[in-house]
Amino acid sequence: MKPKDILVHQDGGERDVMLLHLALGLAKRFEARLTALFFRPTGRFPLRQDERECDEPAEQAERVFLAAIGQEKVEGRFWRLKCGEPGAMLAETVFAARFFDLVVLGQFVQGAPQPDEFVEQVILQSGRPCLVVPAVGAYPVVGTNVLIAWNGGREAARALHDSLALIKGAECVEILRVHANDGFTASPVPASLRDHLGAHGITAISERLAGEDIGVMDLILSRSFDLGANLLVMGAHGGYHLPFLRGAGTRHILRHMTLPVLMAC
Questions:
Q1: What band does 45 get if pLDDT is binned at 50, 70 and 90?
Q2: pTM for the complete prediction?
Q3: Spatial strand order in the sheet of 5-10
Q4: What CATH number is attached to the domain comprising 231?
Q5: Quick one: average pLDDT of 27-53?
Q6: Which of 27, 123, 199, 244 sees the fewest Cβ atoms within 10 Å?
Q7: Given pLDDT bands bounded at 50, 70 and 90, which one contains residue 190?
Q8: What is the mean pLDDT of residues 53-60?
Q9: Using CA atoms, how far apart are residues 247 and 244, in angstroms rounded to an integer?
């Protein structure tokens, strides 16, 4: 399903404009509505002083947003949350995200106003596909050269199907089948991910890797770099025990990503 309602996070940081332009490009591509959600969490007091500190960057972000959607002729709206402690801001963002088809977030960087677990928790708690964009680099185009990290699990299947609109029409799609060195047995069911993607008009090639957790994450990032991919699609896992993409693996990708990553769980 094409995303028709997209949410992009803004916090007054240096990457706001880049995130906005990427989200605008997606909104134009899918003829979608774009909503900017602005907040700057704070744990300092007094709260009134904190709110005054938020006013200027919020007003500037709104001016930039309204000018951009006007220029690109995209339907949009700007939402602003009042300053508050990080936990409350996370809860509000998660709640808002559940009302959208796609959420665009920026990778955490040291010194950013949001807590370091913010992106991970939005992914795990919102139930929505999240496109996370690296803290460095520009990404005017996403989804023309795609790597799919596939282990046959529920989270991987969710991420794949949430990404179909983004990857349809891609010039190159590679499926990286990742399995642990032990415990994997082929299913007698003759299911094929390449065949399934072909039914959607997507031609893909396939490669297999074996390994465990963090080592596999580095292999995925390395393969993404070798392919020159501009989108990685993968499932996200919490802290519970799983043979692949455990919580530590998800966090590793979020901290070391070198390309936009679409995650779902």
A1: very low
A2: 0.90
A3: 76-80, 33-38, 5-10, 102-106, 130-133, 261-264, 231-235, 145-150, 172-179, 205-210
A4: 3.40.50.620
A5: 78
A6: 199
A7: confident
A8: 86
A9: 9
Q: Could you give the 3-state DSSP secondary structure of residue 263?
A: strand
Q: What is the mean pLDDT of the chain?
A: 88
Place of tokens 């200027």: 56
The continuous run of DSSP H or E covering 247 comes out as helix 247-256
Which of 21-35, 67-81, 111-125 has the lowest average pLDDT? 111-125
- DSSP 8-state assignment for residue 186: -
- Cα 104 to Cα 18, 134, 225, distances in angstroms: 11, 11, 22
Q: Is the dihedral of CA 94, 221, 233, 178 positive or negative?
A: negative
205, amino acid identity? I
Q: Are residues 240 and 170 in the same domain?
A: yes
Backbone angles phi, psi at 226, to 5 degrees: -60, -35
Question: For residue 29, what are its two tokens?
Answer: 């591509």
Write down the H helix ranges in 76-204. 86-97, 118-126, 154-167, 193-199
Which residues, other chains included, contact 118 with Cβ-Cβ below 8 Å and sequence gap of 6+?
Answer: 86, 90, 93, 108
Pick the closest to residue 174 from 217, 118, 248, 227 (CA basis).
227
**pLDDT above 90 coverage of the chain, percent:** 66
Q: Which of 82, 105, 133 is the last residue of a domain?
A: 133
Q: Within this chain, do residues 163 and 215 fall inside the same structural domain, yes or no?
A: yes
Structure token digits, residue 16? 């706001």
pLDDT attached to residue 29: 97
39 lies in a domain?
Answer: yes
